[in-house]
Amino acid sequence: MLSWIKQFNIFCFLDSHHYELPPHRFNMVAGAGASASFTSLAQDFSAIDEFIQPGKWTFGHISYEQGAAWHGVNTIKKDPVAFPPFFFFRPEHVLVLENGVLLVESAEPDKIYEEILAMESTATPGSSIPMEPRLSHDAYLERIAAIKAHILRGDAYEVNFCQEFFAEDVEADPAELYKALSQLSPNPFSGFYRVNDQYLVCASPERFLFREGETLISQPMKGTSKRWDDPSADEASRKELFESAKDRSENVMVVDLVRNDLSRVCRAGSVEVEELFGIYSFPNVHQMVSTVKGRLETNVYFSHIIKASFPMGSMTGAPKKRVIEIIDRYEPVARGIFSGSIGYIDPQGNFDLNVVIRSMMYNAATGYLSYQVGSGITFYSQPEKEWEECLLKGMAIKKVLTGGQHS
Q1: Strand, helix or coil at 46?
Q2: CA angle 334, 335, 339 (to 5 degrees)
Q3: Which of 44, 217, 222, 385 could form a disulfide with 210 if both were Cys (CB 3.0 to 4.6 A apart)?
């Protein structure tokens, strides 16, 4: 399917890699080609509610800076990958895979199905792509110290601080990068996404928002520990994460922020924490995940829900507006689609949106390749350990880019 879909200038391929973390809907869903599009270059985001049509699929993304602007923070920093602040499209073709059955929704479904079957998987030989850090190790530590000073002054409780690794003048095959990353680090909210020259190669383990009928669910992720080949060491790492005061502190602060966000669009008294401090294991890391759910008010539309809750608390911190200001001051480059979201809205108006982390961003026109990693900074943070956590989160991407694993 990847070989077939990559021929389109616009597509969104979303893959759960057979995880069935609740709530679960599809193994894979994809939209290819655009019969109509909705983008920040021409339209105000509130008009998305008119663009979303009953009975039709919609796919797309929202970039971090769009959410920051909704909170009154308009950055002067540029996103070198240059995704638009938001972009949604109604696809010409939709593929849905569930329980081993592929459903093709298209004007010519039989033709599309035959084309997919006839596609041969080709592999481009991999080459090592060295990535440069936007911040040196010492500069990173200095910025963490400065952020901790804000926390000590009472400006914030927790700040998600991210750093970028990048390369220029790169010739890469994004489909092969996605195959390699998926093989090395399959995750439940992965995606391969293209808007003309801009590509996203995503291996995200985190869900942002899920809607089914009146139910709205958010699953913020805060807290990370390393996986080990040795079962006893792996279990010890898992247990250490569950008992970590620092990670619990981060997680509960984000849960409180998410509860507040959801309460803006959900019925009074309906927002509840369904699971607190759940530990979920992925190929390279253990993660602490909590689940917050509520029942939507009547006459609440997609734009209301997104504006009430985006950017997601796990990628900002608390209090959200002040933290977004601090992020803008200390992060040297715009996040763009990183820590934004991609996903779908189905014909019934239900949706599933991820958090764009553990991802590569690539501009095929300029050759600019980038990935970003971050961590939550609190009063308890040790700058060197935060640096190490960032390297751990970027480990799979680095292996793909430097290990020649492009087959």
Answers
A1: helix
A2: 160
A3: 217
Q: Is 206 a catalytic residue?
A: yes
Sign of the dihedral defined by the CA atoms of residues 314, 318, 319, 322, in that order: negative
Question: Is the whole model's pTM more than 0.90, yes or no?
Answer: yes
% of the chain residues with pLDDT over 90: 85
As given in the structure block, the two tokens for residue 215 are 């139910």
Q: Out of 92, 206, 331, 386, which one is annotated catalytic? A: 206
Coil/strand/helix, residue 166: strand
At residue 406, does pLDDT exceed 60?
Answer: no
Environment class of residue 230 by beta-carbon count within 10 Å: exposed (0-12), middle (13-18) or buried (19+)?
exposed
Under DSSP, is residue 4 helix (H, G, I), strand (E, B) or coil?
helix
Rama region for 39: left / alpha / beta (φ>0; ψ in -120 to 50; rest):
beta
The pLDDT score that the predictor gives to residue 283 is 84
148, 222, 307, 320: the active-site residue? 222
Residue 179 has pLDDT above 60, yes or no: yes
Model pLDDT, residue 39: 94
> Which distant-in-sequence residues (6+ apart) come within 8 Å of 55 by Cβ?
347
Beta-strand pair 285-295/58-62? unpaired
What is the C-alpha to C-alpha distance for residues 389 and 383, in angstroms, rounded to an integer?
10
Residues 6 or more apart whose Cβ sits within 8 Å of residue 7 = none
Whole-number Å distance between alpha carbons of 284 and 225 = 9
Give the C-alpha distances (Å, rounded to integers) separating 33 from 54, 89, 202: 19, 8, 20
Supply the pLDDT for residue 177.
95
In contact, 147 and 160? CB cutoff 8 Å: no
Classify the C-alpha dihedral 58-173-124-373 as positive or negative. Answer: negative
Residue 346 to residue 351: CA distance in whole angstroms? 6
pLDDT of 249 higher than 90: no
Q: For position 124, what pLDDT does the model report?
A: 66
Distance CA 375, CA 358 (A): 12
Exposure string for 205-222, b = 16+ CB within 10 A, e = fewer: bbbbbbbeeeebbbbbbb
